[in-house]
Amino acid sequence: MAWATVLIDGNNFYASCEAALDPSLIGRPLVVLSNNDGCIVARSAEARALGIPMGQPYFQVRRELERLGVVVRSSNYALYADMSQRLMLTLEPWVEELEIYSIDEAFGRLQRPPPQAGSGGGAADLSAWGRALRQQVRRHLGLPVAVGIAPSKVLAKLANKLAKADPAHGGVFDLGALADPDPWLEAVAIEDVWGIGRKLARWCRLRGVANALQLRELASGELRSKAGVVGLRLQQELRGHSCLPLVAVPPAKQETCVSRSFSEPIRELGPLREAIATYLSRAAEKLRRQHQRAGAITVFVRSSPFNGTRLYANAATVSLPLASNDTAVLLAAALPLAERLFRPHKPLQKAGVLLQNLQPLEQLQHHLLVPLSPQQQRRREGLMATIDGLNRRYGRGTVQWAACGLQPAWAMKRERLSRAATTRLSDIPVVHSG
Fold first, then answer.
1. Looking at the domain assignment, is residue 49 inside a domain?
2. Which of 18, 51, 118, 131 is deepest in the core (most CB within 10 A)?
3. How many domains does the chain have?
4. Residue at a domain's end among 144, 179, 214
5. Residues 280 and 321 in one domain
6. pLDDT score for 28
7. pTM for the whole structure
8. 77, exposed or middle or buried, with CB in 10 Å at 0-12, 13-18, 19+?
9. Which residues of 209-230 are buried (b: 16+ CB within 10 A; e: fewer)?
10. Quick one: CA dihedral 353, 357, 363, 368, positive or negative?
11. What's the gap between Cα 95 and its chain centre?
12. Domain that includes residue 243, residue range
């Protein structure tokens, strides 16, 4: 029995999440903005049809969006992360292995049943399975997804693209069930092949290789001279040989970073300390969720390159004698770095924290000069777990550290933020019956 690789991808994910919680947005053009309501980072299908470009600064197209009746939303990262988690949990029972590839994409593997009698010996078609999966995701989450099915990851990527390209496919395309997939591969431009970057695409074009089929048939020796083993592996994937295994358990992270641009420049030390404390608290939450401790902290700042003054960028690092994911410990180590980085005459536009030398929870090298008894360690771990649990249940910021401030003026601007009804109790819609 053969294995099939599937790629499930959320269509216009950010915009679809917004419409899932606000049905009035369904069928309307919608765009989602980046941090501080800067640029367009997501568009609904209706907004794409209007020709609204991706990455366009919002202030440049604001009047045009108003004229076209386009709905504008600020990025609601808490909503998108929660919907992504729900999507992945919905997908898990449908496949035998699942690799979470990004916030809106996942690879899966399942066995392809043997062909039925009279099918001519071709592979069994899994399109019905894909349509059933799409229906369940739509019913449970209100999210549209596309399903690409093929013998390998690269072909599954192409199949997913083909599933979206033609509405007649209904969001599902099984490339592995076709008797002759060559015409479909020929229709995919070389730039759209997963793993082909701009330089390699140009190299291929110069040699007359303009689509996925021609790349598959290219002499392997010639491809290897340019792209090495990676290129050969990609070519084998196009030939239907699975060379890229699914990564069900992602490798442990080497670093964890949290950084943001400010809604307005910071010119005083106090607000900078608040920003660093806020970002460090968020990074510590990530660290605990990853079951890791940090052995070093780097804090970095920079001014705006567009304010007409010389760019100021600086960073400072501190090593911890005892690796920790305790927010209080990390704050005590990192906040003094703010004084080393602050310059009164340099308005700061961005700051961030980088947690380094990450270690698993099971590995803790104690220090003779920094005693930490098992009882103290359990108490602090219990406190952090309680704080994280309260913030998960009642919304981020329910319990926060005083060093973060209450309503900082530098906080990210999100003037068009939607409700977070899946992660904040106060945002759950209330229905009053007569």
1. yes
2. 18
3. 3
4. 179
5. yes
6. 94
7. 0.83
8. middle
9. bebbbebbebeeeebeeebeee
10. negative
11. 21
12. 192-250
